[in-house]
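Exam prep: given the inputs below (a chain plus coproporphyrinogen III), describe the expected output before reading on.
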Amino acid sequence: MRQAGRSLPEYRKIRAGVGMLESCRRPELVTEITLQPVRRHDVDAAILFSDIVVPVAAAGIDLDIVAGTGPVVAEPIRTAGDLERLRPITPEDVGFVAESVRLLVAELGATPLIGFAGAPFTLASYLIEGGPSRTYLKTKAMMYGQPELWNALLTRLSEITLTFLRTQVDAGVSAVQLFDSWAGALSEADYRQYVMPHSAAVLRGLLGAGVPRIHFGVGTAVLLEAMGEAGADVVGVDWRTPLDVATKRIGPDRSVQGNLDPAILFAGWETVEREARRVLAQGASAPGHIFNLGHGVMPETDPEILTRLVALVHDVSSR
Ligand SMILES: Cc1c2[nH]c(c1CCC(=O)O)Cc1[nH]c(c(CCC(=O)O)c1C)Cc1[nH]c(c(CCC(=O)O)c1C)Cc1[nH]c(c(C)c1CCC(=O)O)C2
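Solution:
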């Protein structure tokens, strides 16, 4: 999940004075930052240090990642003319990511590395709004009002995303995660009509790659079934839906990932332990369960609680 490193003092130290996008383009720095939470917490897998907007910047869009805000796009995409600024990418455009993955695979040994990308809808929302949004007004206005432009934009984004993920797979990642973080803003019918075909194209494009595909969004209780059908091996679930309920919706063919509320980590160890045990018990009804938080780690989280949580999950799941 995003911000895995942000609660760590060693992360804040190494990032001091280096912009977020700049740090994603330095393979040695990416390697060190990716390894930090693995060393500290003994988690079972590493998540590549990068961001969902990295391939969009490589495609020619002028953007920045502003601390405390998120991605901000200088000139949002609103017309067919604007779309020309979003070029297709080649693996060379994101060569620094391939280099980072190669360095990491060598360092990590038996610990798997998870690569990732943003899904077309979530990326489109940043490009159209120009930054984070609560209502997705301009995004939905284009989706409903200019379906041709919408489909052209999401098609271009799905091609960029697929190239970005294939580059990571070719460089050696063991699994990929497709983040459609903001798809929860949509009804199931609209998700299926306007978004799912584009995410499905990305996930289908990875079928022969031989790596598990995780598909995650926030507030997606009504979309879980469709997000699985889009072509995922594992569906990521936020904390709002218990994993046993999620499993009934997703069906017996896919595993689940999740879903401890990141806010629980502020409630004291007894609560953390009780809730983590509940998540593990509810996840046991799925054909496979990857324990995780239901969304990203808050920067204010006490790293020692995270270390203890990982140890607890190891202890419970080894029995
Ligand atoms: C929506 C989204 C983004 N980025 C990402 C998503 C999908 C996952 C999710 O839903 O959280 C994915 C992401 N972003 C980052 C990772 C790597 C994992 C990690 O090391 O934490 C991952 C997997 C690094 C990051 N990406 C970002 C940070 C923090 C910036 C910093 O450290 O300077 C990190 C470590 C910035 C970012 N980037 C984005 C947001 C909303 C923010 C937060 C802005 C803020 O609150 O400061 C866009």
